[in-house]
Design goal:
Catalyzes the reversible transfer of the terminal phosphate group between ATP and AMP. Plays an important role in cellular energy homeostasis and in adenine nucleotide metabolism. This protein is of the alpha/beta class and 236 residues long. It has a single domain, classed as Rossmann fold, CATH 3.40.50.300. The protein has 9 helices and 8 strands. The strands form 2 sheets. It has a 5-stranded parallel sheet, with helices on both faces. Strands 6-5-7 form a 3-stranded antiparallel sheet. α1 crosses α9, α3 runs antiparallel to α4 and α6 crosses α7.
């Protein structure tokens, strides 16, 4: 199964991607991992991407697309993959379609994780990180520390990262609405989008996602079968 995962920041894409990839036995391919792997391994694409990043510039779409295509062509992705963080805009989505078409394959579904904007702000702006150990993460509403501002695990000071401030979160949402959200309409026109609520327990969201993907694939298979029957009839 070949899937693109979309949703606003704070929708839980990383968490759901990991569970879905495991359940479907396909690799989870995230943009962040692609960049880190290529840069750490000093591939030609990694060196090129780093040259842009070192100058404070955005990495061009063609570099990101080349990294993604190289990863999708690895043996473990032969039976499918789950793309997380790519494509980020319609231009990248069009390029992805062209790359898949050249390889003789196509996407099966685009899973859209839907979360109200106020909930996104609440989820991200409520995070608190331990200064001693960044893996110690709390939330003022969902998982508060026993003592306000103090890490339960080591007693370190809890703080809010600049990236988690409400102002920053709302700016990130604006970027998402402007740049990434349009790909949903792009893929909806192809009949690929399945939208689910990303509210609730992680396991419940995963179950919801798996059921939606199953329905999408069943519907797609039926559509392909009907199309094939119609073409056979035309031939006669």
């Amino acid at each position: 199964m070949r899937i693109v995962l979309v949703g606003p920041p704070g929708a839980g894409k990383g968490t759901q991607a990991a569970f879905l990839a495991q359940n479907l036995s396909i690799p989870h391919i995230s943009t962040g991992d692609l960049f880190r792997a290529n840069i750490s391994q000093q591939t030609e694409l990694g060196k090129l991407a780093k040259s842009y990043m070192d100058e404070g510039n955005l990495v061009p779409d063609e570099v990101t697309i080349a990294m993604a295509r190289d990863r999708m062509e690895q043996p473990d992705a032969a039976n499918g993959f789950l793309l997380d963080g790519f494509p980020r805009n319609v231009s990248q989505a069009e390029a992805l379609d062209q790359a898949l078409k050249a390889d003789g394959v196509e996407l099966d579904a685009v899973l859209d994780l839907e979360v109200p904007e106020d909930e996104v702000v609440k989820r991200i702006a409520g995070r608190r990180i331990c200064r001693n150990e960044s893996s110690h993460v709390f939330h003022v509403t969902y998982s508060p520390p026993k003592k306000e501002g103090v890490c339960d695990a080591c007693g370190g000071e809890l703080y809010q990262r600049d990236d988690d401030s409400e102002e920053t979160v709302r700016r990130r949402l604006e970027v998402y609405h402007t740049q990434t959200e349009p790909i949903i309409d792009y893929y909806r026109a192809q009949g690929l989008v399945v939208t689910i609520s990303a509210l609730g327990k992680v396991d419940d969201v995963t179950k919801r996602a798996m059921e939606a993907l199953d329905r999408q694939v069943e519907g797609k298979d039926q559509s392909d079968e009907d199309k094939s029957d119609s073409e056979d009839g035309d031939d006669k």
